[in-house]
Amino acid sequence: MSDNGLVTLPSAHDFVTTLGRLTAVLEAKGLAIFARIDHAAGAASVGLALRPTTLLVFGNPTGGTPLMQAAQTAGIDLPLKALVWQDAGGSVLVTYNDPGWIAARHQLGGAAAHAVAALTAALDGLARHATS
What CATH number does the domain containing 115 carry? Predict the structure, then answer.
C-alpha cells in the first residue's frame, strides 16, 4: 500500500495510445466504463491550458459490492478510477487508488480481504497492460 493511496505507473506509450490500451483492456475484461472525463478539454472550454489528463471511472458490481457490504462508505471511492496523464516532462503515467488504501480508509478489515486482494491484482494487471 502506498503512503498517499495512489499507485502510479509510467507508460512506454504516448498519451493517446496509453488511454486507448487502458480503455480496450477494460472493455475486454467486461468492465463497465461509467464515465470518461477529459480534464484537458474541460480546462480548454474555459480558456485554460492543461496537459492531457483523462479520468476513466469503471467497475463491476462483483468486485466492488463486497467492499460496500463491509462498509458502505467505501462507495465514495467506488467505482474504481484510473487517471491517464502527461507530466510536465512529457512522460505519460497511469494513476489509480490502491485498493488496500481504500480498505484501510474505510476500516474494512478481514471481511473484505479477498475482494481487496482481487481488486489489487486486477488493477495492477490492467495498468501494466496499458503502460507496457
Answer: 3.30.310.70
The pLDDT value recorded for residue 110 is: 82
Tens digit of each residue's pLDDT (9 = 90 or more) over 34-45: 999 999 999 999
Name the domain count of the chain.
1
| pLDDT value of residue 2 | 59
Q: How far apart are CA 38 and CA 54, in angstroms?
A: 4
Strands lying side by side in the sheet with 6-10: 6-10, 92-97, 80-86, 53-59, 32-38
- Alpha-carbon distance 107 to 23, whole Å? 31
